[in-house]
Write a structure and sequence with these properties.
Blueprint lengths: L3 H9 L2 H4 L11 H12 L7 H29 L7 H38 L1
Helix pairs in contact: 3-4, 3-5
Length: about 120
């Protein structure tokens, strides 16, 4: 924020400037992103380690393509959108949560179908 209103507020409330902390984040290297995704996905039950590795690579690609999209967004509209390490971790956690929910839903649907087929076979 710039302008007279901001300048006036800063004079009235100096703690706005004195008590501020600025966090600067630089983008993680691909190796670090890959290492983090491998670590977070190591306990997820998957059919093969090859799939786990592909999933880790996909997480890296999604995050790096998002950073590129943020740069394009800034170039076109002059508005910043930030991606942080926390957003990367949130994306991985969102995937694992959605995977658990979908597995539970599939199991529930399988049980319903199995029960229905059993009832049909009995009649």
């Amino acid at each position: 924020p710039v302008g007279d209103a901001f300048r006036t507020r800063c004079r009235k409330f100096p703690s706005l400037i004195n008590c501020c902390t600025i966090d600067w984040f630089t983008s993680w290297p691909r190796e670090a992103l890959l290492s983090v995704s491998r670590q977070f996905l190591k306990d997820v039950v998957l059919p093969s380690d090859e799939l786990r590795e592909s999933l880790s690579q996909m997480c890296v690609e999604i995050h790096t393509s998002l950073e590129a999209a943020c740069d394009r967004f800034f170039a076109q509209l002059r508005r910043r959108v930030y991606t942080t390490p926390k957003s990367y971790l949130d994306m991985i956690n969102l995937y694992t949560d959605m995977l658990e929910k979908k597995r539970a839903e599939l199991t529930r649907n399988y049980q319903r179908l199995s029960t229905g087929l059993t009832k049909l076979a009995e009649t």
